[in-house]
Amino acid sequence: MFDADYYELLQIERTADERTIKTAYRRLAMECHPDRNPGCKDSEARFKAISAAYDCLKDPQKRAAYDRFGHAAFQNGGMGGGGAQDFGSFSDIFENIFGEFMNSGQGDRRSNALRGSDLRYDLEISLEDAYQGKQIDLRIDTSVRCEPCDGTGAKAGTSARRCTMCDGRGQVRASQGFFVVERTCPTCRGLGEVIADPCDQCRGEGRAEKQRSLEVRIPAGVDEGTRIRLSGEGEAGVRGGPSGDLYIFIHLARHALFQRDGTTLFTRCPISFTTAALGGAIEVPGLDRQMHEIRIPAGIQSGKQLRQRGAGMPVLNGRGHGDLVIQVEVETPTKLSARQKELLEEFRTTETGEECPASSTFFNKLKTVWEGLTD
């Protein structure tokens, strides 16, 4: 079997790429490994053969030599490593195949410092502050680097030592049947180091609870749900690890006059029925602290919207402003003087129906429907 073609042993084409070779080896090795076939000499011999084939074909230089000279490339000391090889436990297959994903060897040890957690802060501001932008002072309860030990977690004059349980990797392995499972080292909690003499202040964590003060600039144009990220302003890391981030979520307080939709501001504005009939102008205060004159066309109806360009909210991190939209509500007078009533009665006697075409059309339709029902 050792003289068989390596490509035939792995059941692959000669043009197979590295991934195909690895997949084929993994499948065949699991089928014929001696641990799964105890006492079977054929399985043991086949496993050695496919292991030799994989050892050759996974190496570009060995594969090139094999493609040119065949098995002769590894005879008489040529290249080496092409013959039969010893096999270890079934977990060695996974070490060979998945080695790049597992922490093997001291060069792959994990960092002994863990990143701090991110923090969230919900901040409510007024619509005026969202328009203008604002500098805000925040006080946040969080973890900061321990000053006595400078974040190391060890008492001054001492230092951490490598964890003997995991040999500094932060992970320990356990065999479960045919598989190898990695889990966090229970001794060092995945840090790879243990502290024999911890700092009295932080008890080996390298950080302590403290209230911090921060100055935060809220940019103009922020909206409900806007998220502001402050890098490195979250919780301090464990034993000198990098700090997390602080995320500020913006919430807008209800405004007495305006509602907002993106960069557009909306408001309802009542006008007198004489202004609605004759036309005119009104002034509306904007969030830009300016008075905006809105022209009212004669004959305007309730619910009609008028738009003032550029009087809305600023564009966040951009240029320009949205619009201010005024929705007109025609108000019917409730308190009239005798003279006003007299004038309105005089106006009513002169009505022809053309003054209010919508109502005339409606009542004409109503009359037609009624006549159809009574026929």
From TrEMBL:
SMART domains: DnaJ (SM00271). A zinc finger (CR-type) spans 133-211. It is found in: Cytoplasm. CXXCXGXG motif repeats lie at residues 146-153, 163-170, 185-192, 199-206. Zn(2+) 1 binds at residues 146, 149, 199, 202. Residues 5-70 form the J domain. One of its GO terms (molecular function) is oxidoreductase activity. Residues 133-211 form the CR-type domain. Participates actively in the response to hyperosmotic and heat shock by preventing the aggregation of stress-denatured proteins and by disaggregating proteins, also in an autonomous, DnaK-independent fashion. Unfolded proteins bind initially to DnaJ; upon interaction with the DnaJ-bound protein, DnaK hydrolyzes its bound ATP, resulting in the formation of a stable complex. GrpE releases ADP from DnaK; ATP binding to DnaK triggers the release of the substrate protein, thus completing the reaction cycle. Belongs to the DnaJ family. Homodimer. This is Chaperone protein DnaJ. The lineage of its organism: Bacteria, Pseudomonadati, Pseudomonadota, Alphaproteobacteria, Sphingomonadales. The gene is dnaJ.
